[in-house]
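REQUEST ID: PR-0412
SUBMITTED BY: lab tech R.K.
PRIORITY: routine
TASK: structure prediction, single protein chain
INPUT:
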Amino acid sequence: TFNYALNIDDTGNVGIGTSSPQSGLHIYGLGQSTANITDAGNQGAFLRVSDSTSTAGSGGGVIFGNNQSDDTGAVGFAAIKGYLTNGSDNTIGDLTFSTRNGTTDTALTERMRIESSGYVGIGTTSPSTYGKLAVWGGKAGTSTSSAAFSTPGSAQGEDADLALYSTFENTADNIPRRTADIIAGFNVSSWGAEYLSFNVGNNGSS
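STATUS: complete
OUTPUT:
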């Protein structure tokens, strides 16, 4: 039998491990079915710098782009990058997401970062300075909130909710359970009836 290692069809689609690529680049037969991803083995795609490079800031990434309207060349408008954060240890890295706003940015600008410790930052490159989730850039009295929680709006009278979960001391499974809610909504179907309520559970009841 003949195994397809690499196939380029007549439309320019490239298939690795498949003779029938279904998109621009189609990688088939790589990856793992288990939840944990390890360094070794086939993972679908592996992007990296050379083995001799361990400079902070280096790493593999993917850039999304197209041609400029004036045909002066290709331009990247979004990117995902693995960012080596410690030059002395090449196993410590962050994951960054960048975009370009053509009206204000002349280059790709980082918008979101997941640090190696699991801290997540939107608008900040150092989320661990603030907390597990850090959102920077919003302020009161403007149209830009630091964080917004919205109902899906699929029905009248929906309330917005922020739920807090804690681990009960007398449970064998140690699974967090809902303990309190901050709820916002409208008392009646008119402006001026907005409310904000703070709710604490009562023996398992809401």
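NOTES: The CA atoms of residues 181 and 192 lie 22 Å apart.
REVIEWED BY: pending
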